[in-house]
Amino acid sequence: MANESRPCPCGIGDRFDYEGCGQEVQVEHIEAYVCKPPASTDKAVIVIHDIFGWQLPNTRYMADMLAANGYIAICPDFFVGQEAWKPSNDWASFDDWLKTRNAGKIDKEVDVVLKYLSEHCGAKKIGVIGFCWGGAAVQHLMLKNPHLKTGVSLYGVIKFFDDRSSLLHPTFFIFAEMDEHIPLEQVTLLEQKLKQNCKVDYEVKIYPGQTHGFVHRRREDINPQDKPYIEEGRKDMINWLNKYL
Fold it and tell me: Where is the Dienelactone hydrolase domain (predicted)?
């Protein structure tokens, strides 16, 4: 039974009722969701899911949005068959659950996905976006993977990689002002370290009044006061990708 007195902060938001326009494929040892744009392109974006996994309709909605904006979008199962977190899980068990799902140990899977995008989709320019757990994974990849062109980290958990800020590629960081999971002091510290150590273009943006997960876990029609910020976050993400891919 879930610990309701201390619920998972990542559970804030809405689960979309959304089917998805793409298809599920097998990429070597990984399952993945792929959505392609109507016109052929050599630009692709890897979408890294949050703790709720690659099948969350919200994440597929974001992948389809990327495809509608002209990108091949692929959302692989970076938990590689391990069970995603469920809202009904006891938050007290979260740390143990997380130990077997390290956002900094996805390099093997990313290499497989990059090969698939190149050989089967004709992709030559590849970026990455990620949410929460996936946002931290984006930061990890921007620090070390030479084959990616750019990244957007949406409310990535800073504490996973807070001691490393020498990014290889232009990176856009999206944060929420009211995020209980990522205090603004951490965001300020990240900005300071990036200013000291980062040699590539980057941007850190805080969206006022928003909570964790707002870009992909908030429905505009339920929370009209959030709608401008949800739309702004999505537009900013697309604009960043357009600039660097």
Answer: 30-245
